[in-house]
Amino acid sequence: MLDMLSLAFMQRALAAGLIVAVVCPIVGLMLVLRRMAQFGDALAHVSLAGVAVGLLTRTYPVATGLIFSAVASLGMDALRRSYKRYSELSVAVTLSGSLALAVVLLSKSQAPGGETLSYLFGSIMTVAPRDVALIGAVGLVVLAIFALLHKEMLSVTFDEEFARIGGLPVRMVNLVFILLTALTVSIAMRIVSVLLVSALMVVPVAVALQLAKSFKGALAWAVAVGLVSVLGGLYLSYTLDTAPGGTMVLTTVALLFLVLGYKRLRHIE
Hints:
mainly alpha, ABC transporter involved in vitamin B12 uptake, BtuC, 12 helices
């Protein structure tokens, strides 16, 4: 373990991974409670379209991915309100449309295939200092806003009508939360991959909901599982020479099955 941490690229990977391990489960818990678990997956595909624009224009792909996610999150919210009885349509339309756009743009891009694959499948080992700086800055912004508005977000999450009657700016709270989700997805895609980013937001929450008896407990467990998954996944990836993003997600899934198995055994006994 100490040998691993003596390497500069592993230090950057660990710093970026720890930030994502804290932010993703926090936002993911709110998504699950709102029954919007697939929202993050749709935004991840939007981020891929943004990355494609960055590669095509030879600008910073993480930044263009972040901008695309933020704009698309607002569009998804507008679609969700247009189809109140079929709100899942907003996810399906955004996911398919953004994926199609990404495919078209990537076909026109002259970027090396390895660079494209690093976003598609994740490349935490090649995280640059500017990536760590951006991930850290955005992560701190997300955590700060969540700390300031978590009560309002919880109120809107559990009973939107009651929150509106109580005078809360429900529309604004929802928009802020959607933008926080977009920011989280954008910084996590470089670490976990576009294809797996939603897993790091949802699976730790699935574990937490099996163990916790309150919102605070679920939040603590989700963050703890996220940290164990990233630390354990990084170590296993370095030791076994496997893909870091996939290894981290598989670690999370393994924890979920361990918890489910343990609870089932206890129930049988």
